[in-house]
Amino acid sequence: MAKKETKEVKKDKKQKSILNDASISFLEKYINNASPTGFEAEGQKLWLEYLTPYIDTKYVDNYGTAVGVINPEAEFKVVIEAHADEISWFVSYITPEGFIYLKRNGGVDHQIAPSKRVNIHTDKGIVKAVFGWPAIHVRDAAKEEAPSVKNLFLDCGCTSRKEVEELGVHVGCVVTYPDEFMILNNRYYVGRALDNRVGGFMIAEVARMLKETKTKLPFGLYIVNSVQEEIGLRGAEMIARTINPHVAICTDVTHCTQTPMMSKIMSGDVACGKGPVLTYGPAVQNNLLKLIIKAADTNKIDIQSAAVSRSTGTDTDAFAYSTNGTASALISLPLRYMHTTVESVDKQDVEDVIKLIFESVKSIKNNHDFKYIKL
What we know:
- There is one protein chain.
- The protein has two domains: 12-86 and 192-363, Zn peptidases (Aminopeptidase, 3-Layer(aba) Sandwich); 88-176, Elongation Factor Tu (Ef-tu), domain 3, CATH 2.40.30.
- By secondary structure, the chain is α+β, with helices and mostly antiparallel strands.
- Helix 2 (21-32) runs antiparallel to helix 5, helix 6 runs parallel beside helix 9 and helix 8 (286-298) crosses helix 10.
- It has an eight-stranded mixed sheet with strand order 1-2-12-3-13-16-14-15, sandwiched between helices. A six-stranded antiparallel beta barrel has the order 4-5-8-7-6-9.
- It is built from ten helices and 17 strands.
């Protein structure tokens, strides 16, 4: 019995969470806050407030990318990065009868919109509205029209354009979903905009762990939460030129392909619960990738692999190519139901991504040679 109890204690110790109550409380608050592309300021304030105890200095660029720095005087610069923005809608037209038509702000999915509740962000505060849709009783099944940007509209309970405008709604107002964070079956974190505010959470946790373990780094570490990824990696492009780092480890979400209607042939064999995903592709610098793989192996962190034919489609591309060539790599978090309001990630995967970034950062030395070919 004594031996069995010892084994159970060891198992419990191994499975002990690296996240504390304050971490989870921040994650929930951060996910529930709206940070649509181009309007990320409130989310960035929350993120910097949480990050501040673990860094030496911080700044925000002209478009809202937030940066926390450890060892800001060091010449050798390493970035760990995620993006802060979420997909949303823009008000584009208000009819004389008071209905509101929209344009996309990022890759928002039109098919999930009918009957959803939304928040319209105005200078007077939040205006509540719903996506209207004809009842099933009056639709012709033989000619049924699918939802699209052309026919989706909002109803905020008004009867005229004037009444809508009096609420503070105007062309250009941003529209988000109010769906909130939850934990599903004690296994999945669920919410809107886990793509990719969960990434911002993970890199902030790396900073916390470095502080609490009193880890001394021989380089400057830049913890970067970029804006405007959802419309073309724009925030990362700008901050990459500002920092001009030597190394960049980016994190974003990737598709879990285990649910119905997903194709492993097209999207790879990736599963929630089986660990971080490392990407092979032209933008990923091979020596840095090998360092991350070694860190995973040394620390017994399960990893998965993915391949891309051209770009990664993440901020990794911006860091790799926006400067004179930054050694860059991508550590992805498997996610179900991307660009919906019920995006889902495995709790253990989140912890393992944090651990892998933490251990990878610790493996980088000030004189580490990331040159592709050693002459």
